[in-house]
C-alpha cells in the first residue's frame, strides 16, 4: 500500500520536473509565432492570439533580412559532419593499431594519448588561434573543423573496446590469408559499429554546439556557424525583437533536438562508457 | 624474419600515423607554442615579439599590474560559479536519477529523454531562451510574480540574482548529462545488496545511505571532477546573459583571458593567464581525487 502511494507521488514529481524542462522550450516556440507587440505587452499568453509566420519568414528571408540563417545551418552541418568523419577515421585506425598491432613505441603513445585527456582545453586555445593565424587559415572551414581531431577521447573509447574484442575471429582471418587492412575493415569495424555511432553523435554534438572557438576564429557573416550566428544576432539587430530571436533559435534547435532523440540510445551508451572508466 | 618484422611494424604504424599527426599539430605543438608565447610580449598586430622571460607571470602576481586584478577578479568569479553550480550539478543530477529509477519501468525512458533534451541545444539558444524568460519587464517569471502581487526581480542585473540566473540556466542545460551517468551507476548496484538490506528491515533512506551511496562513490567522484572542469570553463552563459555584469561581478576568468587576447591584443599575457588557469584546474582535480580516495580508505 505504502509502496503504491510512493510510486504515485514519484510520478507526480516526475511530471512536475518534466514541465520545468519543457516550459522554456515551449515558451520559445510560442513566442516565435507571436508578433512583437503581443510578445512584449500582451501578458502571459501560452498560445499566440494571432499566430504569425512573419518571424520565420523574416529569419529565413536571406538577402532581405541580411541574416544568412540557412548558410549558417549548412556551415554547422558541414563543419559538424566533416569534423566527425575525420575523427571517426583517424580514431578507429589509431585505436585498433594501439590495441592489436605491433606499433613501435606503443606504450609511450598510449600513455601520451591518455595523459592528454587530463590537459584542460584552455591551454591550446590561444596558441591554436596563432597557429591558424600564421597559416592564414582563420575564417575558413579548416579552422572550424581540424582542431577537434586532436581529442584523444575517441581513441581511448575505441581502444578499450578493441582490447576486449575476442582475438579468435581476427586470427582465423589471418590464417585465411587476410592482411591487416582487410581484418580491420571487414571484421573489426563492423563489430564496433554501435560504439562508432556513439562516438559520431558525441563528436558531432560537441562540434555543432561549440561556441567560443568558432566565435573568435570566424569574422565574416557567411562563415558563422548557427550557434555563433544567433549569438551575434542576439547582440545585434534582433535584440529588440523577441519574436524573431525565438524563430531563429527554434530553427537552430529543432534539427538538434530531432537528431538527439534519434541518436539518444547511442549517446546514453557513450555516456556510460565514458563514465565507467 | 627480422625483415618481415620491420615490414609488419611499418604497416602497423600507418594505422596510428594519421591520428598522431593531427595530435602533434593541433595539441602537442600548441602546448609548447603556448608556453613560448607566454614568455613573450606578444602583441597580436606586431610582427616582432620581444622575449620577456617570466615577466607576464610576475605581472599577474604583482598587485600594481592591471593583470593582477584581471586574473584574480576573474578567477574569483569563476570559483564562485564553481562553488554555486557544482554541488547542485552533482546533487540534482543524482536526485533526478533516483527519481527516474523510482518510476514504473515503462515510463522511465520517456522521462529520461525529456530531462536530457536541453542538453542537445547550444549555449546561445540556452542564453536566448532564459534571457527572455527572465526578462525584467516581459519575462515569464516576473509576469507571474506581478500576477501574485510579488515584487519583480531584476534577474540579470542585480546581485545575487545574476549568479542565480546563470546557475539556473546551466542546470537546465547540462543536468541531464550527469543524470544519465548516475542512472547507469544506480543500475549497476548489485540487486543482492538491496535484497539483503530489505531482509534486515532497512528503510528506504537506510538503503540509500548504506548501500546506494557507497556503491556509486567512484561515479560520484567522476561526476564531481567533470562538473568542476565544465564549470571552470564557463564562458557562453555570462558572455551572453549578463555580459559579465552587474559591473564586473560575473565576468569570469575565461572572459578576461579572451578580452586580454583579442581586445587588448596581448596574447603573451593572455597565454600566461591560460596556463595558470589550466594549472589551477589540474590541481583542483587532483585534490578532489585525493580527498575522495582518502575517505574511501577509512
UniProtKB/TrEMBL annotation, chain A:
Q: Name one GO biological process term.
A: transmembrane transport
Stretches assigned to the ABC transmembrane type-1 domain? 73-263
Q: What Gene Ontology terms describe where this protein resides (cellular component)?
A: plasma membrane
Give the keywords, sorted. Cell membrane, Membrane, Transmembrane, Transmembrane helix, Transport
Regions crossing the membrane: 12-30, 77-98, 110-129, 141-162, 183-208, 245-268
Membrane topology value: Multi-pass membrane protein
PROSITE patterns the record matches? ABC_TM1
Organism's domain of life? Answer: Bacteria
Primary residence: membrane
Instruction: Indicate where this protein resides in the cell.
Output: Cell membrane
Q: Which InterPro entries match?
A: MetI-like, MetI-like_sf
Which PANTHER family does the annotation name?
Answer: ABC TRANSPORTER PERMEASE PROTEIN MG189-RELATED, ABC TRANSPORTER PERMEASE PROTEIN MG189-RELATED-RELATED
Family indicated by similarity: Belongs to the binding-protein-dependent transport system permease family.
Q: Please state what the protein is called.
A: Carbohydrate ABC transporter permease
UniProtKB/TrEMBL annotation, chain B:
Its localization reads: Cell membrane
Q: Which Gene3D superfamilies does the annotation name?
A: MetI-like
Where is it found, in Gene Ontology cellular component terms? Answer: plasma membrane
Asked if the keyword 4Fe-4S belongs to this entry, the reply reads no
What name goes with this protein?
A: Sugar ABC transporter permease
Q: How does it sit in the membrane?
A: Multi-pass membrane protein
Q: Which domain of life is it from?
A: Bacteria
What keywords tag this UniProt record? Cell membrane, Membrane, Transmembrane, Transmembrane helix, Transport
Domain ABC transmembrane type-1 residues, every copy: 75-288
* Presence of keyword Cell membrane: yes
